[in-house]
Amino acid sequence: MRNKKDYRLIYMGTPSMSANTLEALIKSGWNFVALISQEDKEVGRKHQLVDTPTKVVAKKYNIPVYQPKKIREEYEFVKDLNPDLILTFAYGQIIPQGLLDIPKYGCLNLHGSLLPKYRGAAPIQRAIINGETETGITLMEMISQMDAGRMYATIKVKIEENDNYSSLTKKLSEAGVKIVNDNLLKYLNGDLLGKTQDGNLVTFANKITPEEEHLNINLSAKEQVNYIRALSETPGAYLYLDNQKLKILEAKVYKEETKNPIGTIVLENKHLLYQAKGALIELITIKPENKNLMKAIDYVNGHQDIIGKILK
Length: 312
Known about the structure:
Helix content is 26%, strand content 27%. The chain has helices at residues 16-27, 53-60, 77-81, 97-100, 123-129, 165-188, 210-213, 221-230, 296-302, and strands spanning 9-13, 32-36, 41-43, 48-50, 65-66, 85-89, 107-111, 134-141, 151-158, 237-241, 244-256, 265-268, 271-276, 279-288, 294-295. The strands form three sheets. A seven-stranded mixed β-sheet has the order 5-2-1-6-7-8-9. Helix 1 (16-27) packs parallel to helix 2, helix 1 (16-27) crosses helix 6 and helix 5 (123-129) packs antiparallel against helix 8. The radius of gyration is 22 Å and the shape is elongated.
């Protein structure tokens, strides 16, 4: 039976979550002959070009990096790499059929949900938004239809009440390492048959739109807190205070109460709160526009005038 080092793998992924999984798999002994990542992005006011997180890892281990602008148009180079298998995790572009056909053993994807639930671009965020208490990672076959291939293995991951997008991606990244190490050799050696998804159980997780980052003040308190968790630490949900964005990175339902107009900012026992439908929400960590991240109570100490104002 062949072992990890005998197979030529290409990894396709871009963000930090994917980078953490890539590095752990490299350390586990898998032979990655290339990384395909999205293009580097400009950050900050100086528009400095910064390597993608997966590219940082690949360079550290001297793995060649390819960053085609549009993978559907630029993938012929993959043939020269002669891959046995392509493994993707949060790459960020749709993989064309021509590329899927190149590797001898096909292409597998690490998808951040328990398929067939939450197919699509934002399974982690949507699970939190919907108040799920459990999600997971599915090792699945990549086919032309989005997230519809055979499932080869799943690992369940609990969503704790205090989990946000950042903490949950860390858990899923670790689960991704385990699911690959436990199952990929079995797949490559023909010992893993896979399971067809039940079409009756399919749900979709559409990409988070910029409009959704603006918190709907008319949602229930619990729904608003779920949105805040789902968008934290990035990109961050926000409300408007005096026509400026107030990003909310951490919040919780404080207590049931309905006596204030929706959106009213309240200070109670050194807790900065605002009125939502049916309950008060405590602001814990915030980022006022053009300011650094800070504890909400520290902000109010220097801005007592916000008490009684309305968040919108």
